[in-house]
Design brief:
The complex is a heterodimer of chains A (about 450) and B (about 150). With about 450 residues, chain A is α/β, with parallel strands linked by helices. Helix content of chain A is about 40%, strand content about 10%. In chain A, α3 packs parallel to α11 (about 225-230) and α10 (about 215-220) packs across α11. The chains are: A alpha/beta (about 450), B alpha+beta (about 150). Chain A: It is an enzyme of class 7 (translocase).
């Protein structure tokens, strides 16, 4: 396995967020190179790199770019920094530690696609990260990187940071655009896709932060080199976010097809207290759960799909043997109930219904029929909503029931939670005892 | 010129001239900062400045959790209780803070000092549990850390 670091190599360096530091490490040379290339050739390199979207859907980035209609202007780029999927915490580190890498990726993407106005939509809770990014954007303007003359060339580019205000749904691309237009975040029907009818009705590319931060490396080293770091139809490295009951939680940059078990047991130091793994959610809270015996698997998009789950946003949530999975699922379901935007009936009504049933199972107020009903409700939401939040809410429920049904039925028989008070295993105090400094 | 209008002028420059309504969230956030919370009058002010209907301002103000449409305490403390934080013990902290402050979720202490609520994932699962205090992030919380933080809020 290669140890190439693309995204996190400068993290932790003194003042890594400044332009001076970025330039000292060869920053903006890729943009310089890109400006000497034919824009279509840049898109070809990104296609050849097998870069797939790091926000969750894993869609081929170069292909997405090539969907822009040839003759409609203006076009826009929205950078999705709304990182809100539980278990996911990578984009914030790119922004905090290496914002110019992102800005350079944005500038290259805009040049390649003839875009002159771009917005970074950053979640409202990331106040400090938004400040760091805004300062970096100002530095780039002052240095003539952004503005009327992109690095002195005849190409104008404006980039602005737009802070959201607390809504998970705004990470969904069409809700993000609605929100950026100054409305509530209601997803739009697709098609038409944003590449054709996007922000203010114009062709728009929406890319995740991590996706774009890879672009300078691809331009510098070629698409083929990036593809070679990965496997199959997935190129490059990925930032895997590991949380839960591991000894060393944090962000790990690994090849896109890295083994999940190896990541948990070796890189993260295994489980606190040497306990056994019970369940792992591999791609953010929406991804179907894996049981302990299923985690010896490649995390590449298609490999995880074949394993019945998804790589999603790269958020790996690890639960040890002491975890009550009904309680864990109840908490996940509560999240989707809270964050459903309310536009579609199955999701608006179904998500609190699932949360309620799970709450009753956990507290011993449910029958075996309720467990069946829970499954029916999940099945009634999936596939019946405008956006993917409905599916995201249904998938954890469907997969927990499929793999851990006896645990639900035990709650029913036991008339409550057999795990009692301490259904989460770990406390921060017990972690403090075993964990030194965090990696990031 | 008032502080609100001066700062709004800077914000509006980021959006195309014929798309000023795009500044609705930043405008409301600024209104909240300047006037404390988004009363109907503040919502109306934002709508007027952006050339939209007041209903548009209200639908945005009530949709996003960080926009406050009710008066709140001098400090707002928001603890994440989502899956990553719960796996690291945030439920225990949540219960302890409620007891300590004598408030329920979303409540404000009688002296108007602190509004306390649980929030959804803050994107700090690797440094869980996490909490926002007046929008500033605090991570790797322990009961002791939280008590110290709350004690420092006047």
């Amino acid at each position: 396995m290669s140890d190439t670091l693309i995204l996190s190599k400068r993290w932790g360096k003194k003042d890594s967020h400044t332009l001076a530091s970025y330039r000292a490490d060869g920053g903006y040379a890729a943009l310089e190179k890109a400006l000497g290339m034919d824009p279509a050739a840049i898109v070809s390199e990104v296609k050849a790199s097998n870069l797939r979207g790091r926000g969750g859907a894993g869609f081929a980035t170069g292909l997405k770019w090539s969907f822009l209609p040839k003759d409609i202007r203006p076009r826009y780029l929205c950078i999705n920094a709304d990182e809100s999927e539980p278990g996911t915490f990578k984009d914030r580190y790119i922004i905090a530690h290496d914002p110019h890498q992102l800005i350079e990726g944005i500038a290259i993407a805009c040049f390649a696609n003839d875009i002159h106005l771009a917005y970074v939509y950053i979640r409202g809770e990331f106040k400090r990260q938004a400040e760091i990014l805004h300062a970096a954007v100002q530095e780039a303007y002052a240095a003539g990187i952004l503005g009327p003359k992109l690095l002195g060339r005849d190409f104008a580019l404006d980039l602005h940071v737009h802070r959201g205000a607390g809504a998970y749904i705004c990470g969904e691309e069409s809700a993000l655009m609605e929100s950026l237009e100054g409305k509530k975040g209601y997803p739009r029907l697709k098609p038409p896709f944003p590449a054709v009818v996007g922000l203010w009705g114009k062709p728009t590319i929406i890319n995740n932060v991590e996706t774009l931060a890879n672009v300078p490396w691809i331009v510098q080293n070629g698409g083929a080199a990036f593809a070679a770091l990965g496997q199959g139809k997935s190129g490059g490295t990925r930032l895997f976010c590991v949380s839960g009951h591991v000894v060393r939680p944090g962000v790990y940059e690994k090849p896109v097809h890295y083994n999940l078990k190896k990541l948990i047991m070796e890189d993260c130091g295994g489980i606190v207290g040497g306990r056994a793994v019970k369940a792992v959610i591999p791609g953010g809270s929406s991804a179907p759960v894996l049981a302990a015996h299923e985690i010896d698997v490649s995390m590449e998009f298609d490999a995880l799909k074949a394993a019945g789950t998804m790589a999603g946003s790269g958020g790996v949530i690890v639960m040890d043997e002491s975890t009550c999975l009904v309680r864990a699922l109840a908490r996940i379901s509560k999240f989707y109930a809270e964050e459903s935007c309310g536009q579609c009936t199955p999701c608006r009504e179904g998500t609190p219904w699932m949360e309620g049933i799970l709450h009753r199972i956990e507290h011993g107020e449910a029958s075996a029929a309720d467990v069946d009903r829970l499954e029916q409700v999940a099945n009634s939401i999936a596939g019946n909503t405008i956006c993917a939040l409905g599916d995201a809410a249904a998938m954890p429920v469907q997969s927990f029931l499929k793999k851990f049904k006896p645990e639900f039925l035990r709650h029913v028989e036991h008339r409550g939670c057999p795990y009692g008070e301490h259904a989460w295993g770990l406390t921060q105090d017990s972690r403090e005892a075993v964990v030194g400094e965090m990696r990031v | 010129m008032s502080r609100f209008d001066a700062e709004l002028g800077v914000i509006l420059k980021r959006y195309p001239e014929d798309r000023q309504a795009a500044a609705m969230i930043p405008a409301l956030r600024l209104g909240q900062e300047v006037f404390g919370w988004l009363s109907p009058a503040v919502q109306q002010l934002c709508a007027d400045r952006l050339g939209t209907s007041p209903a548009r301002a209200e639908e945005v103000a009530t949709f996003y959790v960080m926009l406050e449409t009710h008066p709140h305490g001098r400090h707002v403390v928001e603890l994440c209780t989502n899956i990553g934080c719960c796996l690291s013990g945030s439920e225990r902290i949540f219960e302890a803070v409620k007891r300590k402050l004598g408030v329920e979720n979303g409540g404000t202490t009688p002296d108007g000092r602190i509004t306390f609520r649980e929030v959804e994932c803050l994107g700090s699962c690797g440094t869980a549990p996490a909490m926002l205090v007046d929008e500033e992030m605090h991570e790797r919380l322990t009961l002791e850390k939280v008590e110290k933080l709350l004690g420092g809020l006047k």
